[in-house]
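Example record used in the benchmark description.
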Amino acid sequence: MSKLGEPPLDGKTDTNPEGLTAAFGKWASAVAARLHGGGLSCKVLQREAFQKQMLEKLIWISAFMHVGTHHQGATVGVVEKDYRSEVTSLIAELESVAAAERQLTFDDGLEERLCAYSRAVAHFPTAVKEFKWRNGWFYSLTEKAIALGKDDPCPLHTAWIKEIKII
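Model output (structure tokens):
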């Protein structure tokens, strides 16, 4: 999450000093080698581990951007420091629905990993963008549940989306 011309920020945090960047698939080793050659970390993961990490990143960007927007564009660091209870409530909600949808269990410590990443990129601004691929995935699960006559699995997420007039 660096600006053009600045050195790249590695996905290393105080909870994951080995880094969070990961690759999966046919070219994963080549991608990791290229990143390592540039002084960056990258793990090569198997499908399930990669899927968990991919969803963790989706939860991070969806939760932190959403809470930051809810608080008039607070930076990621401000969200982690000043609105932690709100972001952790949203993380728990999104984690639950993602785990149920993909039939997986996230590793312990998800909240702390996501907050640690936020401290590593504390300067990053917040905005709900690319709704369809980020928060929209969670909202599609809400729509699916409601269409089946079930309760909204993401009521906090839905309420805040409506509040900031995304839907």
